[in-house]
Amino acid sequence: MKKIWKRLTVVFLAVVMLAVITSCGKKDQEPDDNDGQVSDQGGNDEDGHTYYNVEITIKDYGTVKVELDATAAPITVENFIKLANDGFYDGLTFHRVVKGFVIQGGDPLGTGMGGSDEQIKGEFSANGVSNGLSHTRGAISMARSKSFDSASSQFFIVHEDSVYLDGQYACFGYVTEGMEVVDAICDAVAAVDSTGNVLKQDQPVIESVKVIDSDE
Question: With 196 labelled, which of 33, 187, 205, 211 sits at a CA distance of 20 to 30 A?
Fold first, then answer.
């Protein structure tokens, strides 16, 4: 009788262990709540900053490569990466061009009045957020209205140093290659008013904004 119980005990323990192993295997295969579109595409630099590499291709002009700093402006970068991965920017334009200042785009209306469905917190000191990035030549930053938390999809690339914008707008990265493309746009595109608005037919077209995986 004791031998029978001993065998039954061994069998029971074996079944329990098999169930535990099977359960762990299934757990590892379950999809994470995060779809991976943002977190899995980034990397870390030598200073420990999380960054994302983006390529902005502009019809007839070329490609601007940008490195986004998700440590300095995590909300801003996540919003931009999500819109890029969704294809939101593809086919939109740069509706504002001011030589010596900025080129601005990402507005689905092409007028400076549009945006995506979501507005985000402004990550800059005037809004109570520490952000050490400066609006020097090649900086990429978010456009907004008077409200500090009104940034949506519109962004601008700084043509020449404009550090007086620091603390008022959310800078979130820098151009690493392709500033000659920005220079060419500033030289070729004529604005129709002092604020830099460009006629629809003359607005440079954003063919695509692509996030490049950090291990590529």
Answer: 211
